[in-house]
Design brief:
Elements: H1 10-25, E1 29-33, E2 36-40, E3 51-53, E4 58-65, H2 72-81, E5 88-91, H3 93-98, H4 100-108, E6 112-115, H5 128-146, E7 152-153, H6 162-170, E8 174-175, E9 180-181, H7 190-200, E10 205-210, H8 218-231, E11 235-236, H9 239-243, E12 247-249
Parallel strand pairs: 4-5, 4-10, 4-11, 5-6, 7-8, 9-10
Antiparallel strand pairs: 1-2, 3-12
Length: about 250
């Protein structure tokens, strides 16, 4: 958007100065004088990471868990049987607190654990105080259960706004989204889950899957997903390894 001022007379000059001051205070300023243009961008603050730009054929398998006890075990079984040493699990803290045995298994298998918040709700609808409370509560529970403070967070429903991102950042968290959504939560059929993930996967990808009980087909699709991605030359890494020292993408690939 371009802003131009044609000044003629002292009164218009005063108005122009006022308009410039208002936009400057808002972090936006664009002026033209003697063919010189100046643009000061609005400060964006922290952003969510969807993938990374890399030539390496690496990607991250990620699993959200917010409820249930029947699906996490079979998914961990598949990862173990297939020799997948690295993956990232985003755990809802109430679920983690009520399933310490499964959390321990994830920890013992050396998988990365990130926060999935406390209440499974849209945090963008919360006050700043409540956002901070929910992140902090999950932080305390997950740190106690795993012995390590998480530094990655994926918000429930993938929902956030600039306030949520800013508060998470102030609490030491990087917000992680995804570029490839398996849509396993829709239970569309094993073949469709496999086809969607394998066809969309790309170097630097973060793949979203779930290990909650509502996702009944993920553990059935996972073996073929792993095999086909390996056949394409992909290596599985944690989210932290994927984003370390690389240029992150803060917008999903269409």
């Amino acid at each position: 958007m371009n802003f131009f001022w044609v000044l003629s007379g002292q009164k218009i000059k005063r108005i122009a100065v006022l308009v410039v001051a208002v936009f400057f205070a808002a972090g936006i300023f664009y002026a033209e004088k003697k063919n010189i243009q100046v643009f000061l961008p609005v400060e964006t603050g922290p952003e969510a990471i969807y993938s990374v730009e890399t030539d390496k054929k690496q990607l991250a398998l990620t699993f959200d868990i917010s409820w249930g006890e029947e699906r996490a075990g079979p998914i961990l079984d598949v990862l173990e049987q297939k020799g997948v040493k690295k993956a990232t699990f985003f755990l809802s803290s109430p679920w983690a607190e009520s399933h310490p045995d499964i959390v321990k298994r994830i920890v013992d298998m050396n998988y990365e654990i990130g926060s999935h918040g406390h209440r499974h709700d849209n945090y963008s609808t919360y006050s700043e105080e409540k956002i901070r409370e929910q992140i902090s509560k999950a932080d305390h529970i997950l740190t106690k259960l795993t012995g390590k403070k998480p530094n990655l967070i994926r918000f429930p429903n993938g929902d956030f706004d600039k306030r949520v991102l800013r508060i998470a950042d102030s609490l030491g968290y990087t917000t992680i989204q995804w570029d490839t959504d398996s849509l396993d939560w829709m239970n569309p059929g094993t073949d469709k889950i496999v086809q969607r993930v394998v066809s969309k996967a790309h170097p630097g990808d973060i793949i979203l899957m779930h290990a909650s009980d509502s996702c009944r087909q993920t553990h059935e699709a996972l073996p073929e997903i792993i095999d086909k991605l390996r056949d394409k030359g992909y290596e599985f890494v944690t989210v932290s390894e994927l984003i370390a020292g690389t240029k992150v993408k803060t917008d999903p690939i269409e």
